[in-house]
Amino acid sequence: MKPLFLGFGNAANVILKELEGYIQDFYYFDEKNITNSKGKKLDRFFIPNDCSFVIECASVEAVKEYYREIIIANKDFYILSTGAFADENFRNAFFRLLENSTSKVYIPSGAIGGIDVINAIKKYIEKVVLRTRKPPKAFSRDDKEKVLIFSGDSIEAIKKFPKNTNVSVTLALSVGDFRKVHVEIYSDPNVKKNIHEVEVVSSVGNYKFIFSNNPSNNPKTSLLAPLSLAALIKKNFENVKIGG
C-alpha cells in the first residue's frame, strides 16, 4: 500500500510506525513544512495516481479544505480530526458528495472505546454523557484546582475546544444525533493523563466506560487516537475481523 498522509506530525509518525510491514512507500503533505527522509514530500496538495488511500492527521481545517479532492478522486479516506463534522453545513456537503463517489470513509474510535456497543444499540439509546478531564496545560490554562470549563452538547464543545473534543464528535456520529451527546470538560491539575468517561443510557442496558489515556508528544492528543486509526487500517486488510 502507498498512502498519502495529510499532515505529518506526531500522530502520522505513530501511525507509520504501527503500519511498518504494511506500508512500502508513502506520500505526505504538511503545511508546516515538515520533512521526512523516508516518504515523498508533496509541495502542494494533490492526489497522486498511485496513491492507495489518504490518512488525515492534520486538523479540522485540513479536512474541510481538502476533502473534495479526495472524494472526487475516489480515494478511501481515514479521518482522525473528526471535529470537522460538528459543522452541520460541512457535514451535509461532505456526505452529499460522498453519494456520488466510490470512496469509503473510515472514522476510528480515537481516544475511547465502546463504539461497537453504541453501534449495536444505536436506536435504543436515550442519552450519552461524555466527561473529559485533562491537565490544565492541554487547554493552555494554569488552574490550581479542578474546574468545569464547558457543559453542553457536542456541537458547542467542538466549536469552543476544536483541538480537544474530537471524541465528542466521534460519539455523536456513532449515536447518529449530535444533540443527544452531552459533554462536560474539566481542567484538572490533579490528573496527569487524559481521562474520558462515557455513560450510555438505553432500553437495552446502561453502560459506563472509563479511559485513562497517556498523552502523546502533543498534550492535547492521546496516544490511543493514532493507534486506533492504525488498527482500523490493519483491520481492513485482515481476513478475520473481530468486533463491530
UniProtKB/TrEMBL annotation:
Instruction: Output the superkingdom of the source species.
Output: Bacteria
Q: Name one Pfam family in it.
A: Asp_DH_C
Q: Where is the Aspartate dehydrogenase domain?
A: 144-229
- Could you list this entry's UniProt keywords, alphabetically sorted: NAD, NADP, Oxidoreductase, Pyridine nucleotide biosynthesis
Q: Does the keyword NAD apply?
A: yes
Query: Which GO biological process entries does UniProt record here?
Result: NAD+ biosynthetic process
Its EC top class is oxidoreductase
What InterPro entries does the record point to? Asp/hSer_DH_NAD-bd, Asp_DH, Asp_DH_arc, Asp_DH_prok, L-Asp_DH, NAD(P)-bd_dom_sf
Which amino acid positions bind NAD(+), per UniProt? A111, N166
**So what EC number does this one have?**
1.4.1.21
The protein's annotated pathway: Cofactor biosynthesis; NAD(+) biosynthesis; iminoaspartate from L-aspartate (dehydrogenase route): step 1/1
| GO terms assigned for molecular function | aspartate dehydrogenase [NAD(P)+] activity; NAD binding; NADP binding; oxidoreductase activity, acting on the CH-NH2 group of donors, NAD or NADP as acceptor
Active site positions, chain numbering: H196
List the catalytic activities from the record.
Answer: L-aspartate + NAD(+) + H2O = oxaloacetate + NH4(+) + NADH + H(+); L-aspartate + NADP(+) + H2O = oxaloacetate + NH4(+) + NADPH + H(+)
**What region holds the Aspartate/homoserine dehydrogenase NAD-binding domain?**
50-108
Role noted for this protein: Specifically catalyzes the NAD or NADP-dependent dehydrogenation of L-aspartate to iminoaspartate.
Q: Which NCBIfam families match?
A: NAD_NadX, PRK13303.1-4
Could you say which protein family the record assigns here?
Belongs to the L-aspartate dehydrogenase family.
UniProt miscellaneous comment = The iminoaspartate product is unstable in aqueous solution and can decompose to oxaloacetate and ammonia.
- PANTHER family from the entry? ASPARTATE DEHYDROGENASE DOMAIN-CONTAINING PROTEIN (PTHR31873:SF6), L-ASPARTATE DEHYDROGENASE-RELATED (PTHR31873)
Q: What is this protein called?
A: L-aspartate dehydrogenase
What is the source species?
Answer: Thermosipho japonicus
